[in-house]
Specification:
Helices cover 22% and strands 37% of the residues. By secondary structure, it is α+β, with helices and mostly antiparallel strands.
């Protein structure tokens, strides 16, 4: 497992787990050459702004959290686009880990269904691999509220490309 730079080795002050991903070194090197901070694998600068935190990551399952506060639409509800960004972040990380050394993943199809709203707390997304092929990977992402109720169901397909 690779601990990313500027990432604490103990839980953050808010009690969440540190960001750790098993990212192939050549992928880290490739993105560093592009000027991308490897510490942004939580979703890049958008993920930073939305405070997305990865708590588990493998090619089969990726889990992460995001606060509702700061990611709301004008009615005070979690913004649907925020849920979509969380889902695409989690599924893309799983697909990238599945792609392996010398390859990366890009989202090509995202489907999001909103079941209920969230107005406070943290939402948790869990991306589970449903198809892991040579040129594509598909993940189902369930997003739940603090009480464990599903608020959003998503499906993401990523194309797998060579670096």
């Amino acid at each position: 497992m690779t601990e990313l730079p500027d990432t604490p080795s103990s839980p953050a002050p808010d009690g969440r787990a540190p960001l750790k991903l098993d990212v192939p070194q050549d992928v880290l090197d490739h993105f560093a050459r592009l000027g991308v901070d490897p510490g942004t694998f939580s979703g890049g600068t958008l993920g930073d702004k939305m405070d997305i935190r990865i708590v588990e990551a493998s090619a089969d399952r990726v889990a992460g959290t995001m606060p509702v506060e700061g990611n709301q639409q004008p009615y005070g509800l979690l913004h649907g686009g925020a849920s979509a960004a969380l889902a695409e972040t989690l599924g893309s990380i799983g697909a990238m880990l599945h792609a392996g050394p010398g390859r990366y993943a890009v989202g090509v199809d995202l489907n999001v269904t909103h079941h209920r709203s969230a107005t406070s707390g943290l939402v948790t997304g869990v991306a589970t691999a449903v198809f892991k092929g040579r040129t594509a990977a598909t993940y189902e992402i369930a997003i739940t509220d603090d009480t464990g109720r599903r608020i959003t169901s998503c499906r993401l397909t990523c194309a797998l490309r060579d670096l």
